[in-house]
Fold Acetyl-coenzyme A synthetase.
Amino acid sequence: QTMATSSSDRRLRHVESGPGRMQRLNAVVLGESIASEEDELVFPSEGFSEQALVSSHEQYLKMYKRSIEDPAGFWSEIASEFYWKTKWGEEVFTENLDVRKGKITIEWFKGATTNVCYNALDRNIEAGNGGKIAIQWEGNEPGHDAQLTYSELLEKVCQLSNYLKDIGIRKGDAVVIYMPMLMELPIAMLACARIGAVHSVVFAGFSTESLAQRIVDCKPKAVITCNAVCRGTKVIQLKDIVDDALVESAKNGILVGACLTYENSSAMMREETKWQDGRDIWWQDVVPKYSTTCEVEWMDAEDPLFLLYTSGSTGKPKGVLHTIGGYMIYTATTFKYAFDYKPSDIYWCTADCGWITGHSYVTYGPLLNGATVVVFEGAPTYPDYGRCWDIVDKFKYVTRYSRKSLRILGSVGEPINPSAWRWLFNVVGDSRCPISDTWWQTETGGFLITPLPGAWPQKPGSATFPFFGVQPAIVDEKGNELEGECSGYLSIKNSWPGAFRTLYGDHERYETTYFKPFSGYYFSGDGCRRDKDGYYWLTGRVDDVINVSGHRIGTAEVESALVSHPQCAEAAVVGVEHEIGAFAAPDRIHWAPGLPKTRSGKIMRRILRKIASRQLDELGDTSTLADPSVVDQLIALSDF
Ligand code: WT7
C-alpha cells in the first residue's frame, strides 16, 4: 500500500536519493499494514533535513568514506577546531587491535598537549559565550532551580581546582566522586580535568560495598560527596554510605585522607550529618575561599581523563579507562552530529553522571560544543509522571506539556523495541522529532552506530548506520566477517578516538574480554542483524541469546514481538535448558509487577535466567538493582 499524501511524495524522493538498496523500495507502508518492520521507513519531517548539519545520505557517505579512507586527516581536521597547547606529530594515531600481533594498543594525538576543561570552558568564553547559560539545573522539587553561565561555571570549577591542589592532589591522582545530580557533580569532574586528576564517578545509588570496591581498586586521594539527597519523596543519606565504604576500604588497606562534603541543605542540614574531624570537610566552608582563576595543567592527549567502573555480569567491576585527547574530540563530534546541535538549542540528557552517558552527553560532549545543558536532580516520576514534559516546557516557557520546543529525541542503553519507538515518536515527539537511537558502550566513549537525524529515513528499532570513522563488522562464531544481509556478533574493525585504552590495572582482562574472542576485532558482546538496506539492528547481549534448535534468537527480537501486543507494556525474555524442539514457542509466560533492572534501566536477564531455571542460590550480585524486592516477587510468581 502506498500512502497517497503529499508527504508520501517526499518519502519517495528520499528513497530515490537513499542508499543503493533502498532505491528498490517503491512504496512505503506505514501504520497498520506493515509487511515487515524492516520496511518501515520514517522520514525526517518537513524542512528538517534542509537545516540539518548532515542533510542527506549522500553527504553522509561522502564524509564517512573520507573518515574511513583517511582517518588521520578526517580527525585531525576536526581536532584542529579545539585548543592544543602543542600539536600532535606526523602520526595522528597508532593502533593494534590484533592479539596475534602483540599487545593491544590504541593511541590518538599522542604527544600533543591539551586540557578538556580548558576546551569546554575557557575556549567557549574566549569565543564570546561567557554569558551563555552552561548549566540549567532543576532540583528534585518543582520550582527549585538554578543556573550557571559559562563564566560562572569556570569560576566555580577554578575554586574547586585550587582547593584540590591545596590538599595535595596532583596530576595523575585519582578522585572518587559520589554525588547526585547537583551542579557540583559536573563541577567536580571539570575541576579534576583541569588539574589533571583522574576522576572516577560512582553512581550515588550504589551501595556501600560497590563504592568500597571501587575505592579499593582506584585508591583515590580524596572522595567528593554530599551529605544527603532527595529523590522523589525519599531522603538518601549519602554521607553515611561513604563513611561505611571508607571503613570497608581501610580494612583493605586503602586509607582516604579527605572527604569533601557538599551540604545539600534541601535534603539534610549539616548538624544532622555524621562527621569525622580531620578527614571530613564541608565544601561550603572551604571552596568559596579560593581564587576564581586557576592555571590549567597541560596534559598529554594520552594521559588518563577518567575511570568509570562497569559491572560485568560476573567478576569484579571493570575500570574502563578513557584518555583525554581522543575522548574529547569523539564526544564533541558525536554530540554535534547525532543531535544535530544548534547553538540556540537547550539540550537535556536525563542520564546521571554516574554512567558513561552522563560523562559523554551531559558533561563533556555538550559543554565542548558550548551548549546549554539541563541537569536534573530528581526522578522522572516525581511529583508525577509528567515531570519530564514539565521540564521540557518550563525551559521554553510555553504552556504546560505542549512539548512544542522539542526538536530531537534520543534513546540509549537497550534495544528500543519498535512499539516503544513508535510511542516515543508519535506521542512524545508529535510525529515530528527524529529519534537518535544511539548504540554504544561505556567502553566506546561515544556513539558508534547512530542516526544522523536529517540524513536518512529511520526504521523504528534500528540504530541505523555507523558514525564517521567507525567500521562495524558482523562476524560469525568463528570470527569470519559476514557480508550484506546477515546476523551475528557485532565487532569493530578499527579504533576510533573515543575508544577506551585499557581496563585499569588489568590490561590482560582488556585483551581477553574484548580482543581475544575474534582476532583483529574489538568485540562488543552484542548480537546484531544487518538488513537488506544496510541498517543495523541490535538484538541484545550475546550472553543472553536464546538458542532454539541451533537457531540463535536475540532477546530483543522476541521481546519486540511480545510488546507489540497492546496489553503488554514491557517484556524480558530468557532461555532455559530444554529438550531440543523444532518450533520456537515460549513454554511459559509470567505476568509480573516489575522486571529486575539496574538503576540505569537495563534488564538483568541473567537473574531471570536463574529464576526460570530455579537456580535460586546462584542469583549472583543483586545489589545494583534499582528495586531488589522485584526478585522475590518474581521468584514467588514463577514457583510452579
Ligand atoms: C550496552 C552498553 C551506552 C551508554 C549506556 C549503556 C546496550 C546501548 C543501545 C542501543 C541497543 C544498546 C548494548 C551495549 N545498548 N545502547 N541504542 N540499542 N542496545 O552503557 O552500560 O556500557 O551498556 O548497552 O547491549 O553493549 P553500558
